[in-house]
Amino acid sequence: MQTNMEQIFTFIDQESTFIEEQENATYLEGVIYSLELWLSDKKAPVLNNPDKEEIRKGIQLAILKGMKKAVQVNHQMTPDAIGLLVSYFIKEMTKGKKELSILDPALGTGNLLYTVMNMLDGEKNAFGVEIDDLLIQLASQTGELLECDIQLFRQDALKPLLIDPVDIVVSDLPVGYYPDNETSKDFFLHSTEEMSYAHHLFIEQSMKHVKPGGHLYFLVPETIFESKQASNLHKFIKEYGWIEAVIQFPASIFKTKGQEKSLLILQKKSDVLKAPREVLLAKVPNMSNKTALELFFRKIDIWRE
Ligand code: SAM
């Protein structure tokens, strides 16, 4: 017998393949079509009391299949291994909070944000911003099937956002140059020598939309503090926030060399809080090394205490 996750994948896969072959559409457009069938109750997978993670993972498998066929690096879904680790940190650092507002300004398919939301207890209300039509449709349909309290905005996240400051920002940032020089001029982190880095501008925009004392969890290029524009980024972070942790992931998680990312955890300054005593610098060991993983999590516990 198939698990709920397999049933969901098989259902979406069959419908998407049919649409791809019959309608001259892409597989991902087929995924949107199948999720629409499911949401409108016209046709749905046969499921046995699925939980939210089974639904998320079933949809994620189909989107991954579609993304293998054609997708740019910067549009790729955040891998589950990373999403789960990010969720672990957020869960540990928000223990005891009954209500949380969360923003992902580069939402993509929503996979990272939904992974985090599924892991957190208590009430959550979320906001997602995404510029790409197809990805935000996937995120919207997945959010509906997961019955998430989420508001979505299809727009350039570096333009003004109608979103009140949140408790947490979590985002797998798009990396590279931001082409809109006019918009970037309004940012402290714009570059006068070359085009500005989109990932730096996203950090600044996120800082604006988080409450004082709130945390920001970014997936950033491993070399973020070694680039030409890094000194400005240092200045910005020093002025508005505190670095809490920089965590490197094992290279084996990433498909291509040069795409390695780290998790950068920041806190927005607040008059009633003090800077963290110690910045956590750690490297996640290879996931197959159980002893090393246990040691890693122990190190995190000690740091947190
Ligand atoms: N976490 C996402 C997921 O699990 O699917 C993946 C995020 S992906 C690495 C980065 C996303 O940023 C892409 O979906 C891309 O379309 C989006 N993006 C790039 N520039 C943007 C902009 N200026 N405003 C809003 N979204 C943008």
UniProtKB/TrEMBL annotation:
- CDD domains in UniProt: AdoMet_MTases (cd02440)
Q: What GO MF annotations does this protein's record show?
A: DNA binding; N-methyltransferase activity
Q: Where is the YtxK-like N-terminal helical domain?
A: 47-67
Q: Show which residues constitute the signal peptide.
A: none
Domain DNA methylase adenine-specific positions: 86-286
Q: Which UniProt keywords apply?
A: Methyltransferase, Transferase
Q: Which InterPro entries match?
A: DNA_methylase_A-5, DNA_Protect_Modify, S-AdoMet-dep_Ade-MeTrfase_prd, SAM-dependent_MTases_sf, YtxK-like_N
Single Gene Ontology BP annotation: methylation
Its recorded name reads Site-specific DNA-methyltransferase (Adenine-specific)
Give the originating organism: Psychrobacillus insolitus
